[in-house]
Amino acid sequence: MLAIRAFLGAVAGSMTSPLRPGDFRATINPLWSRHRLSGRVEEISPETSDTSTIVVRPGLGWRGGLAGQHVGVDVSIDGVWHRRTFSLSSPPGRPDGLIAITVKARPDGAVSRHIVHALRPGQTVRLGHPSGRFVLPDELPDRLLFVTAGSGITPVMSMLRHLAEGRRMPDVFLAHSARNASEVIFGEELRRIAAQFPNVRLYEHHTRPAGGRPAARLTMAALSAICTDIPERMAWVCGPLGMVDDAESYWRESGISDRLLTERFHSVVSPGGGQGGRVRFIRSGRETTATADVSLLAAGEEAGVLMPSGCQMGVCHSCLVPLVDGRVRDLRTGEEYGAPGDLIQTCVSAPARDVDIDL
Amino acid sequence: MAAPTPLSAGDIEELGEELDRLRAEVLASRGEDDARYIRRVIAAQRGLEAGGRLVMFASLLPPAWLAGTAMLTLAKILENMEIGHNVLHGQWDWMRDPGIHSTTWEWDSASPAAQWKYSHNYVHHTYTNVLGRDRDLGYSMLRVAPEQPWRPVYLAQPLYNLALAVVFEWGIALYDVEIERAWRREKDLDETLSHLGGALEKVARQGLKDYVVFPLLAGPAFLPVFLGNLTANVARNVWAHSVIFCGHFPDGTRTFTEEEIEGESRGEWYLRQLLGSANISGPPALHLLTGNLSHQIEHHLFPDLPSNRYAQIAPRVRALCERFGLPYTTGTLPRQTANVWGRILRLALPGPTRSRTGETSPEPVIPARAA
């Protein structure tokens, strides 16, 4: 059976050479290509004033993912493909085969704004494969703690939906921080789950409650007074950098860092230093110049080089490429580094001076 | 560069700035319409190819053979000219579509894309019409410029140029391996052998598809399908050969010496591209089938602008030529083809050897008018 399939595959491959059979199928329907995974937008529904959920039908070759994982999504804007990484908000293995991402339009984010405001059902997006270790373990712990802020709720929503579908809901404490009640992404569904399952507790922290004065941020110190059994819980924390840093030091000081999984949104980019320089992409024969505050990823994309990319904030390591020559600067720390052969993260590295990249 | 025209250094600089502006304008306006254009051409090409091959399975009926062969020929021409050549130039890289990108594309031609990109994009487009540097000047086997010294072998060039036209893609594949440079010890032997291996592998895959797999699948129609594929390949070879020869070898185009291009400025580079290239005039369908190499002048000025934009900027390039008193060589396909063949016949014989300094215009210039 396998031999016959391999033979038929080889015949089909030699018929379409130098293209692949999938290239011809994709010409009819982009979803029919296995090696270039695409999806069709089925539905877009607003969650809050600036956040929408995009429901996508993935094409052939989609292998599914785990609750909490993220996926690279490419959208075409003015004929140019842009990749960004988003957490899946849908539970894995939906019976209808659909997946969902939930995207917040950032004021300075052209791509996220396009997805929330301009994307329409019927349009095609490209998809990567889900990845990430911010997931539930195979053996579910008895007690779980989720701490999230803003759009940091998305991977946790996927987990909660997955748990809600399961046979047994474990003891869950969810602390979520948002500006006010109406800005809570999935607010209604979260409250419904908390009402439906007696062992799910939802603590909503509002930093700008309606009519009131701005309140403090959600800190671990404050949370430990509300959720008194934190050390006995397995914890997932997802949100802006400050919140995740606070959580990591809390768990470190308690000596239970192994009970914490974190995921950061938003990168912090430090202002320029060094002078930048000429950037050469050896294999593509492209050359450009970039200042010291422009990432190599942005410079390469601008020059028309096919740059591998992912989260755009130095987390997922999808963008690693070998350095041939020169030195680069980490935009997050300002640190200069790089020896020939080093794998560099182009999304958070800028040229410190002239650099050659093996791409 | 020795002045090939009465232009002053200031004029040349101004010409360069005008052309840079034109390029920047097109770059800034690339968008969804252009992306849709190339996707549509690719879809049409794949439809024609699949359709042509399918129809050809019925080719025991002569009309089906004719229709299938015509569709496949058209598909193969589009694939090499408007799609392959231009994608491999990086004209569509700005879309960042991994399926339509110069670094991932492989084309339906005997020459592997990587080797062709080197010999074409780099050698030919950088050293366009420079004697001793541009290997496309006569493809190391033809005397197409009077400045090339005559050798007895050129007596046979009308014959072997005809043969080259028939086997053009195979000729290009062999030519991209640069065996003659290895022979002269200018190219490393191991590298040449590895290139040769790559080319042979590609040649085998191409041959397997057109001359073994599809004929076998056709069963009783083995021979008609074999012949149909052969016809399509030969027709495309002759077509590509004609279009490409009309690009740099008709009267009105000129060659340059290595001394002339020493220390060449951006403006002088543009000028050389302009003087070394010739267009083909005709209807939009002709431009599509030539892969817009009918706008050879615009293509050589801006090799990486999307091909659908050449027709759009051609009137402005032409107006610039008129303003600076430069020739803008163009003519219909039959006229330019006859002209090139006339030159190949004439230069098969010894002489004329014109001054290599390029102080005078080597050929009567076809004035800029609709041909």
TrEMBL record, chain A:
Single GO MF descriptor: metal ion binding
Keyword check for Oxidoreductase: yes
SUPFAM superfamilies: 2Fe-2S ferredoxin-like, Ferredoxin reductase-like, C-terminal NADP-linked domain, Riboflavin synthase domain-like
Sorted UniProt keywords: 2Fe-2S, FAD, Flavoprotein, Iron, Iron-sulfur, Metal-binding, Oxidoreductase
Segments forming a coiled coil: none
Residues of the FAD-binding FR-type domain: 34-137
Cofactor(s) demanded: FAD
Residue ranges of every copy of the 2Fe-2S ferredoxin-type domain listed in the record: 277-359
Protein name per its UniProtKB record: Ferredoxin reductase
Naturally occurring in which organism (per UniProt): Frankia nepalensis
Automatic annotation (TrEMBL), chain B:
Sequence ranges assigned to domain Fatty acid desaturase in this UniProt record: 64-330
Top-level taxon of the source organism: Bacteria
Pfam families xref list: FA_desaturase (PF00487)
Gene Ontology terms describing biological process: lipid biosynthetic process
GO cellular component, one term: membrane
MF GO annotations: oxidoreductase activity, acting on paired donors, with oxidation of a pair of donors resulting in the reduction of molecular oxygen to two molecules of water
Ranges where the record places region Disordered: 351-371
InterPro entries (UniProt xref): FA_desaturase_dom, Fatty_acid_desaturase
The protein, known as: Acyl-CoA desaturase
Organism: Frankia nepalensis
Lineage of the species this protein comes from: Bacteria, Bacillati, Actinomycetota, Actinomycetes, Frankiales
